[in-house]
Amino acid sequence: MRKLSNDELNRINVDDFKAATKSPFIVVLDNVRSLNNIGSVFRTSDAFLIESIFLCGITACPPHRDIYKTALGATETVNWQYFSHTLDAITWLKKNNYIIIGVEQAENSVMLNNFVIESNKKYAFVMGHEVKGVDQLVINNCDMVLEIPQFGTKHSFNISVTTGMVLWEAFKQYKLLIH
């Protein structure tokens, strides 16, 4: 086995990325405080051709050097919008026919391994604050709650890890639906 060089990876350029058909997913960051986590979400969103990221509340926006450090240029490719309040973002998403999914540990949550996307639907995944999680008022306005099964002693994953797992599962299902 030989490791591939960057040239052999056949990645698209920024203009091609902007013109590409996006996955019907929006990531909503509900008061995420870590600039490194925000940058990581941008980078992961780029990898899966995510439609947009909604940065809400205390979530910092580009330009910022600590976001750039982990985003590695994805702030130039992935569309983003800022909302002062997460509920304003949820209102916009509902008006535009998105299914709102809080990613949280909650009553009646659906485990990620049981989650199934539907064709011709658009989804918004709400990721919460690193300590407090997704705000309860936001959860109250979600169509469903998605939970990642865990088997160890810790109670949560880092938000960037959570985003990666959720987007990979959604993207994998989406690609199967369109092919």
Largest sheet: 7 strands, parallel
Amino-to-carboxy terminus distance: 30 Å
**Level-2 CATH architecture:** 3-Layer(aba) Sandwich
As a whole number of angstroms, the C-alpha radius of gyration is 16 Å
Strand order within the widest beta sheet: 3-2-1-6-4-7-5
What is the residue-averaged pLDDT? 97
The sequence of SSEs as H and E is HEHEHEHEEEHEH
Structural class assignment: alpha/beta
Structural overview:
With 179 residues, this protein is an alpha/beta fold. The chain has one domain (20-178): Alpha/beta knot, CATH 3.40.1280.10. 34% of the residues lie in helices and 21% in strands. The chain has a seven-stranded parallel sheet with strand order 3-2-1-6-4-7-5, sandwiched between helices. Helix 2 packs parallel to helix 3 and helix 2 (35-47) packs parallel to helix 6 (159-178). The longest helix has 20 residues, at 159-178. It starts with 13 loop residues before the first helix and ends with a helix. The relative contact order is 0.19.
